[in-house]
Every structure is written in structure tokens, then in C-alpha cells.
Amino acid sequence: MTQKRVFNFSAGPSTLPVPVLEKVASQMLNYKDSGMSVMEMSHRSSSYLEIFNETKDLLKKVMNIPDNYKILFIQGGATQQFSTIPLNLMKNGKADYIVTGAFSKKSAQEAAKFGDVHIAYNGSDNNFKHIPTQDELDIREGTSYVHICANNTIFGTEWKYVPDTKGAPIVADMSSNILSKPINVADYGMIYAGAQKNMGIAGCGIVIVREDLINEHKDNIPVLMEYNTIAENDSMYNTPPTFSIYVLGLVLKWIDEMGGLEVMQKKNEEKAKLLYDYLDTTDFYKTHSDKDNRSLMNVTFTCPNKDLDAQFVKESVIAGMTNLKGHRSVGGIRASIYNAMPLEGVQTLVDFMKKFEAENK
Ligand code: PMP
After folding, report:
1. Which residue, 33, 45, 125, 179, has most beta carbons within 10 Å?
2. 336: closest CA among 260, 273, 272, 241?
3. Which protein residue's CA is at the shortest distance from atom 4 of ligand 1?
4. Where are the alpha helices (DSSP H) in 77-200?
5. Which residues lie below 8 Å from residue 315, measured CB to CB, with a gap of 6+?
6. How much of the chain, in percent, has pLDDT values that exceed 90?
7. Which residues in 55-150 belong to E strands, given as ranges?
8. Mean pLDDT for the stretch of residues 122-145
9. Residue burial 216-252, b: 16+ Cβ < 10 Å; e: rest
10. How far apart are the C-alpha atoms of 121 and 103, rounded to whole Å?
């Protein structure tokens, strides 16, 4: 079965670990002698609650989440959080946003509907190839929170440091780099991500939020958008995305058994190095991101012209790879090399790139 799989470089939903898919397949018709699939279970049943609690415990363990943080399973993807964050966390009507790509721009635009949003840095002038240094940030004193996008999926840039935000909590969109490396959760007021890249499949997202930021009820926001309500009901105010949470649990188990996030980081650095080292030896391909800000997860580059970009994508399919076409705002090629992409996939890509260069120089 696995021999027919392609190397899938999709930015999301993306490739999953084969052992996770095999486990899902083996449990599909009859989960642990329950006589039914996980999809058919009541979210209040003991079988499902075991899955749910195990997933939450594993996330806490794998990410080393401190006790004073709540873990929420949410729906509506990361995009829904663009609205939910200001509704809950814009305590004094002010928030600062660092705009390093399409998603942080969207989140800032959404927040501006609800209060005074200050753009502390805007990378649109350089088509988002750069992550600002501390000196380039203009953060206001007394702002409610500072929002960042930790990894810019479209542009292929990633934060390599935690900015000083003058005491304001950092709210970080980690949709495309969560679980790729260890982080210190306590550096953030809130972390959020959609599951469909490094965490599993579309349907659920997670919010990890410091308790003291959500300790009061707000009467004037929709009930399912209030973190306090979701936390008080342990993410079961209504039916959660049960299957997606189950897959997240299996992905976390896979990570844990491999040795956790330190091991993931080592593997991810090895894969990214293979690709970037080659890109640095050639003038044929040009990387989009500044060298210091390169993403470990999304590698973006262009061929010498648009025709060759298209030809590259076409021929890469014949070579056993898929979803390498870059996003229209950058063009060229994007290789998303999340946790589940094996080194062999990246080696196949680099071998293909060398051949393509030799044939088209
Ligand atoms: N933020 C980032 C960094 C993303 O990559 C994406 C999706 N690609 C989103 C937000 C939006 O996520 P969703 O589609 O889950 O709403």
C-alpha cells in the first residue's frame, strides 16, 4: 500500500506519518473492541473521553506546557482565531500586530474591526522576505497584546527569536511550525494553530492560553468564541471535531515515541539543510527568504523564469512528487517539509533539482 505514495510537499492539509495512517486504517471499523469507528462515537462516551484526555495530556507533555495554561480544542481553523483573539484579549481596546505575511496581515485587518490596531512592523515593502529584528519593531507601551505569525507558510520565513514586547503578552500563530521544535510556552500569552499541517488533519485547531488572560466572562461576544466558556467546558460546550482530535492524538504519540520535539527539530534541521545547502551552491534557483529568516518548514524559491517554474512543477510529478507549485504571491516553487516528510523525500527533491538545472541551464 505504502509503495504507491507520492512525496507530498503540500503546505496544508499535508502529508501525515505513515504509521499514523496505518493505525487509523486498522482502527477504522472497530476501535479497540468498541464495535464502531471513532467517527461514530458519542463525544461523551467513555471510549471517546479516553481519546480526548490522552490527546490533551500528550500535547501538554510533548510541548511541556506549564500548569497555568489552558489547552482548548477549537473549530473554524486558525482564521476564526483572527476574530476571536481581539474579542477576548484586547482588554484596553489596543493591540499591536507585526505583519510578516499574508496571514498576519489578515489577522491584523480582522482585529482592526474591534479596536485600535497598531502595525508594529510591516514587511509588505519587501514582499515579506524578512523577519524584523528587535530594532525594527515599533511596539506601543501598554498595548493589550502583540500578535506575531511564528512561521509564514506562503513566504517561507520563520522567527528565530522571541521579541521583547514591553511586557505585553505575545499571541503567536504557529499554524505552520507548531511541534516542529521545542519552544518555551511561558514566553507566550497565547499560541494557536490549525491542525492540518504538523498536528494532523483539518477540523480542529488548538489554543494554548495563559489562564490569567481569560479569567473573566464577557457577555457581549458569541458563546463559542469565548475562551473562558470553552475552557470551563473543557472544549465540549458543543460537539468537538472528534476525529480530528483522535488523529492529533496519534500524531502526538508518533512524535513522543520518536523522542519528542528535540528529535523533531534535529530531523527538520537536517532536511532543511539538505535543501538550503544545495540552493546556496547554485545561481539557477533563487530563494525568496532572507538567509537569516529561512523557514525550516516551507522552503520557497524560483527558477530563472516563469516557464521554467511551470515546467519544474510538471516534471516533478513524473519524478514522484506533488504540490510543489508556489503560492501565487511569491510564484516559483514551495516545498513544505513538515515533520512527516521523510529525509528521503527531500533527497528526491534535491536530486531532481540538480537534474532539472543541468538540463535547463
Ligand atoms: N495562519 C497560518 C500561518 C497558515 O499557514 C494558515 C493556513 N495555511 C492559516 C493561518 C489559516 O488557517 P486555517 O485555514 O486553518 O484557517
Report:
1. 179
2. 272
3. 175
4. 77-89, 102-111
5. 352, 356
6. 97
7. 69-74, 94-99, 116-122, 146-149
8. 97
9. eeeeebeeebbbbbbbeebbeeeebbbbbbbbbbbbb
10. 14
